[in-house]
Amino acid sequence: MVDRLVNSEANSRRIAMVENCFGSSGQPLAEQGRVLVGEGVLTKMCRKKPKSRQFFLFNDILVYGNIVINKKKYNKQHVIPLEEVKLESLKDEGYNRNGWLIRTASKSFAVYAATATEKEEWMAHIEKCIEDLLRKSGKQPPSEHAAVWVPDNEASICMHCKKTQFTVLNRRHHCRKCGSVVCGPCSSKKFLLRGQSDKPLRVCLQCFDELSKERVRPPNQPQTLTNSPSKPVPDTAGSGGDSSADDDDSEDDDERVNTEEKHDEGFTSYNGVKNGFGKKVTTV
Ligand SMILES: [Zn+2]
Ligand SMILES: [Zn+2]
User: Fold this and answer.
1) Compositional bias (Basic and acidic residues) spans (predicted)?
2) Does the residue 55 lie in any domain?
3) 269 vs 58, 73, 99, 244, CA distance in Å?
4) Which of 44, 68, 107, 226 suits 251 as a labelling partner, its CA being 20 to 30 A distant?
5) Which ligand is nearest to the CA of 193?
């Protein structure tokens, strides 16, 4: 096990430092058997644009946050249990290089490393942690994952009706099932998507039809109560505008905080493997 290879004192110190950097904005991270495997900066594709985020890979969780002061202060902590994670490599496309998807039942997003080597390191380390965890627990990886949202700027017109031009008034919405950017009328219906929320969520008309058909089909297994919303939930916003709480990915509201554009991208590994990992991070 990796745990025994790691100097536990150094490990505790590193975890305390991560806790410190998040301060009161984060949760306690020290836990019996938890090891900080590595850390580094990755570019996370957010709703409006790609942003630098500090990622910490532990043997059981992936933690990331916004960088307030490089190496000193982070906020907006997110903790993802690795047991729920599935990775998917992305092909290089234009400026989007060295990327992969981090998918869970409740949230999926793309991240990008600075180089192909870093991508390999990150993915290999995360996969290894997931594998160890699942072997230990005997659990199965989740089969359903939340859609990856299409970034706003990739759609100037509705991806469903292909007509509505997005403007300040004609706001963009995201289908929670397929991740498409759609207009208000094309996403006026909601559907209960287990794994993402216990409330019905906005879906596009196409997904609504498909989901409704699925529900009518004779189920293979007895359906649970929570999976049977009896009817579509009308969009109660009324005003035609979107309730900002619905669509806004709150972690995106950080333009002013993240002022430093230059970060040390890279993956610092702490498990002492001598195969190119553990490269020294240079301070700017
Ligand atoms: Zn539309
Ligand atoms: Zn959809």
Assistant:
1) 256-266
2) yes
3) 11, 20, 19, 39
4) 226
5) 2
